[in-house]
Amino acid sequence: MSQAKQLEELLQEFARVGVDPNTISAGLGVSRDDALRALGALPDGAGPAAFLKQLRSLTTLTAAATDRDLTQGSDV
Description:
By secondary structure, the protein is mainly α. Helix content is 64%, strand content 0%.
């Protein structure tokens, strides 16, 4: 998928959920896939607070799973 199509998809999801992409900090450091996963889990019109809550939940679960995988894989 082209970058233009990816951006269009992301902007459409922000609009569907009711999040103004101009208010989302570029410093969030969130991948496009994580943002789309969080947006996709929300109903229409959920708003920015719901998006950020879902994003935090998603990234916390991902970080915990990564930490667990790293710990289980070490011989220390």
